[in-house]
Amino acid sequence: MKNPTAISQPFGRLPDGRSAQLVTLGQPGGLEVDVTDFGGIVTAIRVPGGAGGATDVALGFATLDEYLRGHPYFGAITGRVAGRIAGAAFELDGRRYPLATNDAPNHLHGGRVGFDKQLWRVEAVTADSLRLSHVSPDGDEGYPGTLAVVVEYRVEQGTTLAMRYEATTDRSTPLCLTNHTYFNIDGEGTGDALGHTLQIRADAFAVTDERLAPLGRVAPVEAAGNDFREPARLRERLGRLWQQHGDYYLLNSRRAGTEPAASLWSGDGSLRLDVLTTEPGVQFYAGRFLDGTLRGKRGRPYVPYGGICLECQKFAGGLGRPGFAPLVLRPGETARGEIRYRFERTVSGGT
Fold it and tell me: Is 311 a known active-site residue?
């Protein structure tokens, strides 16, 4: 590590003996974020200024062993392709590529050993930033091409966690990266997040089947009951969401990365999270499959709907389909993307 003053500590050992590290980003009195090089996982986000001090708003674990035992992608970098690929196969340039059916009958979040389960290489650390890299070899989880990825996490202005990535390949390959943090901005482990208020600035969403596999077409939100263009409390909308899960939303046109794509308010409205991104869409997941068996950093169970995901990304089901952002990265190109999570305490306690 290039900066000897960075706050870093051992986080445990993988079964093959390699060591993982945990790095704390941020300055005293501001936002603090813990990230491990295993999976590029954001394990904690502590927002200052709460009644009892800082509030940890990210679901996660205190030890590497808990992550190794399995989890629903808490805080991880997901890829090569985040989201579901229907039928666990895709066609590219006239060739069919079969993939792992790790969410049968579909392929999910890059496969059985996706980016979330890799030990990333630490390239640089400062008090506010961590740069990680990973090389995914040709054929990894069925994907073509050797893919080189660099991801940087940075705490900005004491209020914002930014994630930026770059990727190149030596063969054409699908690419769809995101961060998979589960947010409960009342505080992780405080129960369900259905009292949160959500806004997503999107007029349309991608339609899925009963197994949540993409069908490759879009529909207007007002016709489906999943309209979050105006702020709405999740508890009041849950019964109208398809499979009580959430959808992939195609974001409205805006100045990329400078205006919020989505916003989330705590139950009492005293804390707001704005999500800004250069990506074309956001996958909202309501945390339906949490079932109380996993316990977080304070030993409290993660109950159904105990965390909300707002995964900024391209659309996995858009591969080769018109109307969706291109998903294929080709040799000579560089893919770039940015996601920013900006927190603000409100004085009035309202939205």
Answer: yes
Task: Give yes or no: 180 in active site.
Answer: yes
Report, as an integer, the average pLDDT of 205-216.
90
Structure tokens belonging to residue 9: 């500590």
Q: Is 7-345 CATH 3.40.630.30? A: no
pLDDT in tens, 145-193: 999 999 999 999 999 999 999 999 999 999 999 999 999 999 999 999 9
111 contacts 99 by C-beta, under 8 angstroms: yes
Calpha distance 185→162 (Å, rounded)? 17
Task: Classify burial at 348, counting beta carbons within 10 Å of its beta carbon; exposed 0-12, middle 13-18, buried 19 or more.
Answer: exposed
Q: If you average pLDDT over every residue of the chain, what do you get?
A: 93
User: What's CA 283's distance to the chain center, in Å?
Assistant: 9
Domain boundaries, the chain: 7-345
Q: Calculate ∠ Cα 223-229-235, nearest 5°.
A: 85
Catalytic residue among 109, 180, 196, 279: 180
Cα angle 239-208-314, degrees, rounded to a multiple of 5: 110
Q: Which residue is catalytic, options 66, 141, 279, 311? A: 311
Model's pTM, two decimal places? 0.95
Count of Cβ atoms closer than 10 Å to residue 240 Cβ: 12
